Amino acid sequence: MRGPDIGKALHAYGTTSIVVEVELALAPAYPWVEMVAAFDEFAVAAKVAQALGEADGIFLKLDSLMAWPLPGYFRGLEGALPEGRHVVMIMVARGNAAAVHDLVRERGGTITLERAYPVEAGVTPLYEYTWNHTTLQALKVDKTVTYLQTIFPLGANIEALIASHERFGEEVMAHAEFQRRFGRTNCSSLQVVRYTSDERLWQIVRELETLGITLSNPHSYVLEDKGARVLAADLQLAFKREADPLGLLNPGKMGRWTAA
Amino acid sequence: MDGGVTAIDWAQVVADLAPIECIADRALVRQKSRDFFWYSPVLNDRLKGVRGDLVVSPANEDEVVRTLAYCHARRIPVTPRGAGTGNYGQAMPLQGGVVLDLSRLDRFLGLQDGVARVQAGLKLIDLEAHTLPQGWELRFHPSTRRTATIGGFVAGGSGGVGSIQFGGLRNRGNVLGLRLVTMEAEPRILELTGDAVMPAVHAYGTNGIITELAMPLARAWPWREVIVSFADIADANAFANALGESDAIMKKLVSVFDWGAAQYFRPLLSHLVPGRAVALAMINDGAREAFATLVAAHGGKVAFERAYGEEADDIPPLYEFTWNHTTLWALKTDRTITYLQCLFAGADYLDKIARTIAHFGDETPMHLEFTRFDGRIAAFGLQLVRYTSERRLYDIIGWLEASGIPVADPHTFILEDGGMKTVDQAQLAFKQQNDPLGLLNPGKMKAWKATPCS
Lengths: 260, 454
What we know:
The complex is a heterodimer of chains A (260) and B (454). Chain A has 260 residues and is of the alpha+beta class. Helix content of chain A is 27%, strand content 22%. In chain A, helix 1 packs antiparallel against helix 4. Chain B has 454 residues and is of the alpha+beta class. Chain B is built from 14 helices and 19 strands. In chain B, the strands form 4 sheets. A 7-stranded antiparallel beta sheet of chain B has the order 14-11-13-12-17-18-16. In chain B, strands 5, 6, 7, 8, 9 and 10 form a 6-stranded antiparallel beta sheet that branches. In chain B, a hairpin with a 2-residue loop joins strand 17 and strand 18. At the A-B interface, helix 2 of A face strand 10 and helix 10 of B.
């Protein structure tokens, strides 16, 4: 399979066929630097994370935002995560570390960690506190937390992020991963939630939706529950009919599958 | 107009500066006093007679310092120059005096962690000859890559081939360090890093002489050059925007021309169909299939492609048809043509382009360079202009600005008027510190009010 056909098997949980070989595009490696920037105000930290993403002259590999008290769960970064402060975790091309300093200083933040990547043996790389590792790091300390996965409106993501932080405070600890979407900087969020009940969790989800933040449900194993994936779902369902007519591959995951 | 400085015995200056290399020959001095200002009929009228009195070509920074101290003591204006490929008269010595040719400061000093440290007079092509074997290239370069110097680019340029990934020189992080010599009785040598470089970037050398630079590089990709044609420029623009927004396709160049502009690309004509709009692109080789899918989705036809660096049919690198080279191709055929520089940005930028094309038609054949601007895709318009009069030219500029399309006027040698039309206080303050007598490239910085020279 090549080109758009790849969608038939991409993120299909192996329900449509078994992937045995992959041809993957690589990027030439840069010498990276890991940095942590800390801020008193969540809104300032969020705007810095967005500004970094939009800074065309600053070449990044990682731009992650975590609201306090989330950093308080992390072990192994002592000294870099001051009590009560919101942080941005960054991987930046070594030549652009100075530009990150300038931006962070201009917005009143502090660089609390700066070290070369790859890190020394035995040291946890910064990326292992980001994306889905964030929740894992929190779970190591507190088994009662869980998380959400949400998608933000392009062009209004920062406003939505700040509004959700103000609405839920420490109950829904903001965690956003900044990324390019359609050529622009947006974020998706993997909020860590202080879980009380299923009822409360779904109430939070509904309230987030009123802020324009939509769920890509991590509390479901059903493929189609992951948000705006309708086109892929159609393609994958049609392909499964051809390639797995008896529905034997990873059964139960494709919600719209019905045995012929 | 003769050189503007009188009552100076230039033979004596040559003798005093020895062994620093000087050129006093009138014809050579005139030749080395010129840049590409003649792109503009307005500037051509104003600058065609301008020349310096003496070209001084220091071989190292010590000789730069000696030259500046000497000229300061005698109140001789000094206008720095790289290869003279600018087209707004950046390097034109308005008040005569010394033309400081920096092209002999051409050493490559080192490459570490993706940062090149170089002397200002090093040509871009020679800089990359040092870095490409190690897998690094300039983040972006002007279309004059084969002739321009790095110092000239940073002092007089703004962006170019690669800006579709990295933006421009004024974006934080794209110039990391500058070494600068001041114009004082005892010139100081300043080492600027971080945001402190900004007042000297695109300042035409009015507030210090750049002798060394630290430039961040990009990892070199195997690039592919492609020409795609479209029935209509609107399709080409939609394609270019979609390509710009395709995060998984690496781009170095995305340029669009309507036929009115592309008709002048003589070496490409056997591959072009009259009447069709054209997009020129440089993409990473690994993205060929994704690119082809995008071309098909927008109704384009691939007219030509090759690996970047490969010779074919005597066609120069495609970037030599883009940015400021486009106008040059038109001028080779029609000396009456000139051009504009404007910015189509914002959520409705494709509409702004369409309105401009509809309003001016073939009076301003469209040429667009797609770029990243403040984290989004935008396009610089370097449309050709079928020039009739200065008055009409400024009517066109007036219409664009009234339509929310800022113009960086390429028909002025005044620093501020060619840019944002506001006084850059940091740039001005930096000149007051570094060139208190106003001897560096005099006449270019509008905000400078002091008596230029005695």
